[in-house]
Amino acid sequence: MAHIDLGNDLPGIRGPMAYSPATARPLNELAEILLRSDDNSLSRGERELIGAYTSSLNDCFFCQNVHGSLAQHYLGCDMATIDAIKLDPQQAPISEKMKALLPIAAAVRRGGRHVTPALVEKAGAEGATDREIHDTVLTSRRLLYVQPLCRRPGNLGAARPAGVRRSGAPPRGRRVYRF
Length: 179
Hints:
Blueprint: H1 14-19, H2 21-36, H3 44-57, H4 61-75, H5 79-87, H6 96-110, H7 117-125, H8 130-150
Helix pairs in contact: 2-8, 3-4, 3-5, 3-6, 3-8, 4-5, 6-7, 6-8
C-alpha cells in the first residue's frame, strides 16, 4: 500500500494521478506533447519506444509494458522485437538514429552530465534533429520523475509478476522513493 491513502486502487501511475488531478494535469499534458503530438519528426512508435526503453532501465514493469505495447502497435512489430530493443538496442532492428537516441535516454537517467557532447554529436550524425534530441531527453526525464510514483509499495501494476524476467539493463544508482 502507498504511504498515504490515495483513495483508489488504480494500477501504475494512474493511482497517484487520480489522487491529485491538479498536479496530474500538467504532467499528462507534457506526456501528450512528447508522445502523441503530430508536430514531431519522430514517429509515435519511435517516441513510445524511447518510453519503453527508459522504463525498462528504470525497472518499471507497468510503464515499460504500456509504452512497449504502444510502440509495438505503432511500429507494427511484435513484443519480442520490443523486448530485444530494450535488452540491446545496438543489435536491434531499428534505425541508426534510434540507436543513437536511446543511449541519450539512458544517460539522462544517470544524470544530466552523462549526456555528453559525443552522444549528442553521434545522434546528430545519424540524422537526429535538435528537437528530437530535446524530446528524447525530456521523455526520459519525465519518466524518471513519475515512475517512483508508479512503483509505490503495494502497487500491483508496477511489480513484476513472479517468474517474469526483467528486461533491460540493471538499474545503476537506483534510489528508493516512498510516497
